[in-house]
Amino acid sequence: MALPSTASAARLRLLTVPALLLLLSSAALLVFLVLPSLSPSSSATSGHLCACSPPSTHTTTTVTTTTTTASPAPVTTSPADVAWLKAQLAANSLLADGAAASHDAWHRLRKGINPRTREQQLFDINRHHGISHYPDEEASNHTALPCPGELLVEEHHSNYGEPWAGGRDVFEFLANASALTPTKQVLEIGCGTLRVGLHFIRYLEAGRFHCLERDELSLMAALRYELPAQGLLYKRPMIVKGEDMDFSKFGDTVMYDLIYASAVFLHIPDKLVWTGLERLAGKLRPPRGRIFVSHNIKFCSRLGGDECTRRLAKLGLEYVGKHTHDSLLFNHYEIWFEFRRPKV
What we know:
Elements: H1 6-38, H2 42-45, H3 79-91, H4 103-108, H5 118-127, H6 136-139, H7 149-152, H8 166-177, E1 186-189, H9 197-203, E2 209-213, H10 216-229, E3 238-241, E4 258-261, H11 270-281, E5 290-294, H12 298-301, H13 305-315, E6 318-326, E7 333-340
Parallel strand pairs: 1-2, 1-4, 2-3, 4-5
Antiparallel strand pairs: 5-7, 6-7
Helix pairs in contact: 8-9
InterPro entries: SAM-dependent_MTases_sf
Protein name: S-adenosylmethionine-dependent methyltransferase
Organism: Digitaria exilis
């Protein structure tokens, strides 16, 4: 092998010296950067491993949240409520008594409104007149709970001998008379289309309202229209079709704080009324539980005062007294008779 010439060796030395200087400079820089981290410092005694910057300071803010339990809605319309509404009527220049001089005058107030009777409205619904609707083949895919037109136009609101609004009056009276709270258990004998029951269902906790009803049309109105339309399906009332005072479907252990029958015992034979009282007396929670019967108690008075008292006592019941209550929206009062379990 030939040895490099003198010129080649010089060039090699010239190239090597700069590279060596660069290598030494890099090593010195590395030592300069590493040494501080290896040497002890005041920060090490305080538990901080980094000497290049002070530890960050964190501020913790404690937020206190207060949970307020909402009070149940008031049961009774107060004088302040009535005064507020009258002020609203006056401020809007509306007739305070809600009446016009004549039927024609009343309809002339309906400017821009096309008055329709329930019969006319039902005719329009069946023809889809003025209603955007899906074609027949798609209709069932867009309506979760198809409802008969007769219920949609609320024909069942006219099934009573008094205005539908009277249901609220009954609720207010019974809720106050029985010191009702949302946790109490209520049974209505013959709830019909829920003219009264809707107010109890809305007020009570879910599952606290029971009803025994025999009429199929009333049950359809209650279940297929009133509960969905009023947004009360989540309250899960137990509404049972049944006759002859058969309360077995409600269970053997249920106890009621309020049992009432509004204009029902008038249409039931006396013997069947006594059968119902016999079955329910033991389900009335003492000492505050109450039974209320409206209009009259001929099932009792026809026996005579002493005999009625004896039969009630045999069932574990006693007569408390007679009450009346007025209506908020129309000139009307209703009579109620109260029963309870005797105080021990």
